[in-house]
Amino acid sequence: MTNSPAAAQHLRDLARLRRVRDRIDREYAQPLDVEALARGVNMSAGHLSRQFRLAYGESPYAYLMTRRIERAMALLRRGDLSVTEVCFAVGCSSLGTFSTRFTELVGMPPSVYRRQAASATAGIPSCVAKQVTRPIRNREAPATEPQLA
C-alpha cells in the first residue's frame, strides 16, 4: 500500500470510533453529548460526527437515542414503570423528545407500546422478546464501491 501512514491513521480513527460506540452502549443512561464523546477520544466534535456517520450510517446522537429507545422498550414491556419513569431511567431529560423519537423508531407512542407489548410478549422469554421487538435502524453504513486507480 502506497499510503501507509494514511492507512494507519484510518485504522486508528476506526478504533476511536468503536470506543465511542462502545461508550454509548455502556453509558446510554448518562448525560452524553457529542463534545464529551469527542473529548474522550481526542477528536473535534465535528470530525467525530462526520466520521461516525461515515462508519455507522447515523450520527452519534441518533445512535445514542436508538440505544435509549431499545432499553425503553424493554422497560415498557415489563409494565411496572410509567412512561415518564422509563423516559428518565434511560437518560432522556425531555418527555416530548423521548416520545417523538420513540414513535419515529417504533411506529407507535410509548404509552400505546406499553399497553400492547405487555400482552403481545406474555409467555415469551425476555431474550427472544428483545430480538423480535428491536426497533429498525440503519445497522452499518452502506459499503462503498472500491475505487480502482
Describe this structure in words.
It is a single chain. The chain is mainly alpha-helical and 149 residues long. Helices cover 66% and strands 0% of the residues. The protein is built from eight helices and no strands. The protein starts with a helix and ends in a 17-residue tail after the last helix. The relative contact order is 0.11.
SSE map:
Elements: H1 4-27, H2 34-40, H3 45-56, H4 60-78, H5 83-89, H6 95-106, H7 110-120, H8 126-132
Mean pLDDT: 85
The proportion of residues in beta strands is under 5%
Number of distinct helices: 8
Give the CA-based shape. Answer: elongated
Percentage of residues in helical conformation: 55-70%
Q: Structural class, judged by helices and strands? A: mainly alpha
- How is the main sheet built? none
Tell me the distance between the termini. 13 Å
Identify low-pLDDT runs.
138-143
Order of helices and strands: HHHHHHHH
Tally the beta strands: 0
Q: What is the CA-based Rg, rounded?
A: 18 Å
